[in-house]
Specification:
Layout: E1 7-15, E2 22-30, E3 33-40, E4 44-51, H1 54-59, E5 97-101, E6 112-113, H2 127-141, E7 146-150, H3 160-168, E8 174-179, H4 182-186, H5 188-195, E9 201-206, H6 212-219, H7 224-237, E10 241-247, H8 256-264, E11 269-276, E12 282-283, H9 288-291, H10 295-305, E13 315-316, E14 324-332, E15 335-338, H11 345-348, H12 362-372, H13 382-388, E16 405-411, H14 421-424, E17 429-432, E18 438-440, H15 441-448, H16 452-457
Parallel strand pairs: 5-7, 5-17, 7-8, 8-9, 9-10, 10-11, 11-16
Antiparallel strand pairs: 1-2, 2-3, 3-4, 6-12, 13-14, 14-15, 14-16, 17-18
Helix pairs in contact: 2-3
């Protein structure tokens, strides 16, 4: 009998890469690779690599957990995913992180920008508009886990600090500012004022590369000195910071290990987030056929380029295992102790579990007790640790503070190529749009941002 060249694994729904029409898709295995096969009646067939690690792809299904939904939904389900955002009643995950874009404008015109920001694009939101956006998040979440003030470049908003002042009056557990760091690098007093919003405040700092070529390709500017000065200022203030790396294959993926090693040496840095380039917005220097990188390729690069993390340290995030990987470590007296390997996976899937992590494993417990005996300062911050250990069991460790935490996150935002309805229903990173609805990051950039809404209307019939 004739035999296909692949092994059929699963069925899902996707969208056409060209026209965004919802279409059937098959998930198939070829060797160790996982592909999505789909066909549009108008634009033909597509074959998209979605993973180069078949065993990991199959294993992520074991990390699904009961859905945690928002306290209210914002839209009805009329047309079917992804045409009802949001959040519609069919969505399966609340907002773990909500992005509030306070401006379209930026002090750069990056060749890679999902929001297409520039010095002259769009406008600043008014203070009243931003307040309504933040209020919408609180109505959905009551006590939002993480809210990220973003743009554009939020630090250029004329009422930036008034916005932060208002946000701090709300029951937001952790507030972030997503920035390219230019203002922080050039103005120490500005950075010092940001520090006044701590604790429960963090800088989400663009940090793509150490190399001029990669920075010019992604950002259109040599920002090495800016990054260096921004980190210096943030270290002086010990202002909690996450480094955010936009990745393209063969451009900056060889620097993954170097970035992690650098981050571990910085007093202010609490972790690194790696984001494979999403084909959305402005993307001037990107060839889908050769520049695209998958979540599993990034995961393998981390394991191959660092000595800190092993395979069991980088696991799927249960709220959206298709698109998120996490790994945690503790920084204690100049040493780094991987933490995730000591977690019982079953505990991740039980929303009611409260587990004392460092008592789960005698070896780790002994190491920690030895370090604690050397006189590590006691800080009343154990509850803060738990709120930031996304999807991990409870950490009862009064000797530890957020300063001791280091996390690796891989955040693979889907685009028109690898779009999977199953996964987008579990999306937990959302954006408040101009109509004060809460939109998953992926669908916002593909269908709901500015002029893209006109394309969307074709399918809302």
């Amino acid at each position: 009998m004739p035999v296909r060249k692949y092994t059929y694994y699963d069925y899902t729904m996707s969208i056409c890469t060209e026209c965004s029409k919802r279409i059937d898709a098959k998930i198939v295995f070829e060797g160790n690779n996982v592909f999505m096969l789909k066909s549009c009646s108008e634009h033909g067939k597509f074959k998209v690599l979605i993973s180069d690690d078949q065993e990991y792809y199959k294993r992520i299904r074991n990390y699904n957990k009961p859905s945690e939904i928002p306290y209210r939904f914002n839209t009805k389900t009329h047309y079917g995913c992804p045409y009802d955002c949001g959040l519609c009643q069919d969505h399966e995950q609340h907002s773990c992180l909500t992005i509030v874009e306070i401006t379209d404008r930026c002090n750069l015109t990056c060749p890679t920008c999902y929001a297409e920001s520039s010095p002259h694009y769009g406008r600043h939101r008014t203070l009243e508009e931003v307040k309504k956006m933040l209020d919408a998040v609180v109505l959905n979440e009551k006590e939002p886990d993480v809210v990220q003030i973003s743009g554009g470049e939020p630090t250029i908003h004329p009422q930036f600090f008034e916005i932060l002042d208002y946000a701090k009056t709300l029951p937001i557990k952790h507030l972030m500012v997503n920035t390219n760091g230019i203002k922080i690098a050039k103005d120490y007093q500005f950075a010092k004022r940001l520090k006044s919003y701590s604790p429960d405040f963090e800088i989400y700092l663009q940090f793509d590369s150490f190399e001029d070529n990669a920075l010019m390709t992604l950002r259109g500017a040599n920002l090495s000195k800016v990054r260096e000065q921004a980190i210096d200022n943030l270290n002086q203030l010990n202002l909690s910071t996450t480094l955010v790396v936009t990745l393209q294959k063969d451009l900056n993926d060889h620097e993954i290990g170097k970035t992690i090693d650098y981050a571990l040496k910085q007093k202010c840095v609490r972790g690194v987030t790696f984001q494979p380039t999403q084909r959305a917005g402005r993307l001037d220097n990107f060839n889908h056929a050769k520049d695209r990188t998958t979540l599993t390729e990034v995961r393998r690069n981390i394991l191959e380029q660092t000595e800190v993390f092993e395979s069991d340290d980088l696991i799927p995030v249960p709220c959206n295992p298709d698109s998120l990987v996490m790994g945690y470590a503790l920084k204690l007296n100049g040493q780094v102790f991987p933490l995730t390997r000591y977690i019982n996976p079953a505990d991740l899937l039980d929303n009611s579990k409260n587990t004392i992590i460092y008592e789960q494993d005698e070896e780790l417990k002994e190491k920690m007790l030895e370090i604690f005996s050397t006189g590590i300062s006691t800080q009343k911050a154990s509850s803060k640790l738990h709120t930031l250990l996304c999807c991990l069991p409870f950490v009862e460790a009064p000797q530890l503070s957020y300063d001791n935490l280091f996390r690796i996150i891989i955040m693979d935002f889907m685009d028109g190529y690898n779009f999977d309805v199953r996964s987008v229903k579990k999306s937990c990173v959302h954006i408040v749009n101009k109509d004060y609805n809460i939109i998953p990051f992926e669908t916002m950039n593909l269908l709901y941002r500015d002029d893209k809404v006109e394309t969307l209307k074709k399918y809302q019939i």
